[in-house]
User: Fold these one by one.
Assistant:
Number 1:
Amino acid sequence: MVKLLVEVLEPQQGERVYDPACGSGGMFVQAEKFIETHGGNPLDVAVYGQELNQTTWQLAHMNLAIHGVEAKLGDEPADTFRNDQHPELKADVVMANPPFNISDWGGEMLGMDKRWVYGTPPVGNANYAWLQHMISKLAPGGRAGVVLANGSMSSKQSGEGDIRRAIVEADLVACMIALPGQLFRSTQIPACLWFLAEGKGRHSGWAPGRKGRCCSSTRVNSA
């Protein structure tokens, strides 16, 4: 799944790459491999990440050092929603595989957060908090890919349908793809992929001619 996200998003030499739920840093390692395979300089990439779990955060530092990846993972392990370690960052590529359907993400304290441009995410589910956080980090012409629970494509609970519609109508969604079940050993929850683009077609070769268009395994007009 990591390789698929990277292959679709096509990170390039000289770009800024961000993962708000970076785990042990696998996305970054794969991104630099992609750049090197395609003739770019993998050292000429600015890598930014954040991880809540202290042990995993330390593993990310070790994993990236082993692979020769220089990364800014924040001053400490921290919650992405409540303690953003890169508050001013605008990235060219944003990608993540965050935990699905988190209910205790602190939404009750973030109701007026400036990231919720398309609607306040429900307190009981962080899926649309992840999406909007990632959108808030996109530089002009940037693109994003995220793995979420399959229900994020169709749920209408607690205003999620309205948020989804607003994101689609803002022409930020390039594609939504429902994935086969049981892809992940860590969860039985069905998953999907969201690909987002800030200004479709501005990135050479990525989502060309997609302005005003979105593909999905569900009908866009029912979003």
Number 2:
Amino acid sequence: MVVVDKQQLYRQIPSVHDMLQWPVFHDCTHDFALQIVHNATKKLKKSIGAGTCSFLDEELVFEAIEQEKSRLQASKLRKVINGTGIVIHTNLGRAPIPESVLDAMKDTLSGYTNLEMSLKSGKRGGRIRGVTDRLCALVGAEDAIVVNNNAAAILLAISATSQGGEVVVSRGELVEIGGSFRIPDIIETGGAQLVEVGTTNRTRVGDYASGIGENTKSLLRVHSSNFSIIGFTEQPKRTELAQLAQERGIPLIEDLGSGLLGKAPNISDARRLEEEESIQVALSQGAHLVTFSGDKLLGGPQSGFIAGRKDLVQQCRRHPLYRAMRLGKMSLFALEKVLQIYVEGRQDTLPVWTSLQKEPGVCRTQAQQICDALGMGEVMEMQSFSGGGALPNQAIDSVGYFLRTDACQKIADALRRGSPSVLVRLQNQGICIDPRTLLDGDLDTLIDVLRDIIAREL
């Protein structure tokens, strides 16, 4: 058994002063280089102490320094080609931003801009008017505000309207909205007390009525994103809850989840999507405040909206949390341009809508192009999903590329780690690529990347 002299290994690590003179740091500031040295040597010392390092010289230390520098300087956000068939992919940034919006952002935001100034009067102006004026005109809301995501919108709505009181919610709607953020926790954080009514699968309007007390501040209706309860179920209609809330003098707040603006995309079960998530439908049926995401079905950047009755929106606007949650100029500008696309009736051109409405025949043609270019694999029918919590159980018919191989995990890993990164589905001991989520310009790049990696891994 070889006995390793740990102290001798520690002494092989050069001094910090000497390492900072290495050419690898010529393009770094002193402080950044110092942090790299600190991180790399800390890892080396930990490895020596654990007994996993039995040999060390200056060359190995230099390699450790280079690796740490590359890690810190590497861009976290990279281009990803989405071959999964999940259109609103939460882990891939949800809705892609339209090219026209990005071009307009460069022209307008490369210098100063009138974020909070009225150029007409020369006085301070509202930063969100360009967004909220368009939204209210589109959905028929009296007023609206926008914050940095839908979780923030729900928290702000509860905090502003129900702090110090009770919020009545059906047990079947006590959902987790992602990242371990749960409706009961949001209500508690908002300074309100949760009152659960009904059961997981059946809640009636009478249950809500029984749950209302002297300290009740609001009724909350929550869209069940990413799951559904089927079978022996019952829930009151939105109009029934709105009437109850009106009679008792409290607001009905509804979290619409993805939030559909206008008519649903041309997909199966579009009518149910409109009934469950349409902003216009929810407001017209009596919801006093609605919250929804701006980066899902709407097709914009990450954001969350609160829209509805003017006095309630004003309560939210005056709450101290609102300033902490407000959007910056880039997101506001992008939202304004995306909403302008709706104003002009061109929402079919939004990437998320284009993908959702892509005909299976178009997907088949692209899958065949992949198959022909690679000279292997097959074209097969598969299913896409909208993602983003919209219609969680409703598949969208598609046609894609399938390659059966024992090396499918190895190839998928290589595709994911490549540049550009490609995400695929692993299914039936093979690789599935659904062209539904390929954007303009993706197909040729995807074929080149696939060809290189398959040649290397097979």
Number 3:
Amino acid sequence: MSPLVGDPLRGFQLLSAAASCLVMFPLAALGRRVAPAPVAAAAALAVLFIPGVWLHAGRGFTDTAAAFFALWAAALAVHGLEGSRGTGFTLLVTAAFLIRPILLPPLSLLWLAGTLPVRPVRRLLPGVILGLAATVVAVASLVVAQGSWAGFASSFITHATTHARNLAEHNPGGVLDLGLVKGVGGAWAAAGLAVLALLGIVVWARRAGRGSGAAWAAIVVVTVTQLVWLQNRTFSRYAVPLDMALAPLLAGVASAAAPPILAAGTLAVLGAVWGAGSFPLLVEQHTTPLPGWAAVQLAVVEADRTAADVVVEPGLYPFLSYKEQLDRRTGRPWRFRWYLAPSSPDSKELPSGRYLLVTNYPFHYFGSLDGEAVRFPTASERLRPLTQGRFLDVALFPDPVLPVRGWWLPEVAEGLGKFMWGGPEAEMLVPPLPGGKALVLDVVPYPGPAPLDVVINGTVALTVPGDAPRAALALDARVFSTELTNRLVFRRAEGYIPSASDQRRLSVQLWGLSFAAAPPTSAASRVPSPPAPGPTRP
């Protein structure tokens, strides 16, 4: 697709959209096993307008494409695997697996259910051999892309480990937060579809055989379990294959409950209701750029215009990398450099001159020292549940101060605002100081006997007593570079543990940084500070 459309992502999106449309045919073929043709077709068309299915049809994710091949395989299986159909069935299951390997458990059940009746078993051999060959070719391609087996294994292990850790630590959400629920329109819709799916399995068992009904039940149970426990349970896109697979079950229930014309009409109305509710969200989705992508595009334009470098959060790096590849292909190589934000464990180097920060964690920073931050339109409250909730709150900061090491995430004190705790060697990167400006620190040491040294580029610019109150201090502009970035370190002989329940070693509490007119040449001077009696206790 890339040679035809020029944009690889657009090619994936077009293929995904085509798969979402063409999947109607295997869905209708599946439904035809237990329902008249008009009912099966109406059910197949209706599920394509389920909010989660329709909105993800053109996104370019793997879920829709994997569902397309898996459902074609299922359609072949329910109508018999005579002749070469068994080979085609195995290849379709293999294609679904290679597109989305995490679906291996339900795909394995599908393959077993389809091949158990095949006799003699040797008829399956050509498909198995071709499927294994395709898998070997796919893995070999990944090894070549990574440069070696070691590189491939390292990437695989890193991804698997990160995925497992995220599931263990960051996979919250109750029933109402499940992507299974949000993707179909909410709790009532999900409950109704669950009941209809159960009834559909019963109808399927009666009309197509108990073994076939048991296979349906097993595949549905395993898929639901996997969606809840082995993937991010709040993402509605992961439920797209299951949502599509509802079509033959709905067709069976409708045909068992009403004459064909009434059943087909009811399913058509259901699809129209889903479509009417989904269409405004679809329009919003297609007219509102993803904030993460919009921020990266603007950062590239501004960096090229101002000769600043770009600092990017690791989560937004894929957008920046993709943008760089597109620009190179169109003969527009970048004249600036980019760096991973210090928050990334892979950050090895930081900019030496002016820079722009693209972040999907704006709260983690105090904002721009010189210039206005740019925020980007985000998803509406109705659309947000159908998104992954990622890269929606994004900002572009010109010349912010970057926490480098020794800092904890910001906190908010009611009525006082945001602050950050730093340890004994907490370090920040400060952009080049504009001429005639001084850096003002709104700071208070954590109470303790050791004094706090404020070190700029290796020079102690200011020493604050350990029991000093909160104050806004303007540092001597002469210790800063006006052309290169500056290293700001809050150095203290020791940190202090607040309590038995909080074992952090705290040294300094930073309430903010700003530029002000440079004071006289004294080492530091006090400027007006918001009233505060001292450090806010953790």
